[in-house]
Amino acid sequence: METKLYYIHGLYGSEKSYKFLELKEKYQNIECLAWKVDDTIHLKLDEWKHKIEANISNETCIIASSTGCNFAYQLREMCKPNFIKLVFINPLFDISDVYDSGLMPNQLLQYLLKIEKHSESLLLFSKNDEVINHKKYLSKNSFIFKNNQVIIDEKSTHNFKNLNEHYIEIDNLINAFYL
């Protein structure tokens, strides 16, 4: 059974972003779940849920970046009891984690959840992330270390230009068997 892959980009990203294009080279069956700042995100989430459920005979994995991680988390919750594997790249768990709150458009704030508990995912953090402050999540007592695989990349920034260095871990999650 082949795992269907989806990508949810971060703020101001698109299906033309380098991350998605790089992922598309590696994983031909990946599809971008694109959104824009002025979209009604609840409607987007519902649209994406129907798309994923139409494909539910396959396993599903969502690779998401930054703000897209918040939406991917919500989408996985909406699709229960079906299980969706998640790969988070510099995830936005809480709007208060953004270094410069002026970066986040006001119309988007209503759609972002504060994620206090998260499990069963691959989490890629940039130690040098200049957009999101992950420090509170990287302590050993953090909820992030419970039932997640956590990788702290020493070289990358928020853009995570060296994503290809973590394909082995991404492949392991994609190919993992869950009951």
The helix-and-strand class reads: alpha/beta
Proportion of residues in extended strands: 15-25%
Uncertain residue ranges = none
- CA-atom Rg in angstroms: 15 Å
Shape from CA axes? globular
Question: Major β-sheet, in short?
Answer: 6 strands, parallel
Order of H and E elements: EHEHEHEHEEH
Helix fraction by DSSP (H/I, runs of at least 4): 25-40%
* Number of E-type strands: 6
**How far is the N terminus from the C terminus?**
14 Å
Specify the number of helices.
Answer: 5
Mean pLDDT: 90
Which strands sit side by side, in order, in the main sheet? Answer: 2-1-3-4-5-6
Offer a few descriptive terms.
single chain, 179 residues, alpha/beta, six-stranded parallel beta sheet, globular
How does this structure look, described?
With 179 residues, the protein is of the alpha/beta class. Helix content is 27%, strand content 18%. It has helices spanning 18-26, 41-54, 67-78, 106-109, 167-175; strands at 3-8, 30-32, 59-65, 84-89, 121-126, 149-153. A six-stranded parallel sheet has the order 2-1-3-4-5-6, sandwiched between helices. It is globular. The mean pLDDT is 90.
Question: How are the SSEs ordered, and which strands pair?
Answer:
Elements: E1 3-8, H1 18-26, E2 30-32, H2 41-54, E3 59-65, H3 67-78, E4 84-89, H4 106-109, E5 121-126, E6 149-153, H5 167-175
Short note summarizing the structure:
The protein has helices at 18-26, 41-54, 67-78, 106-109, 167-175, and strands spanning 3-8, 30-32, 59-65, 84-89, 121-126, 149-153.
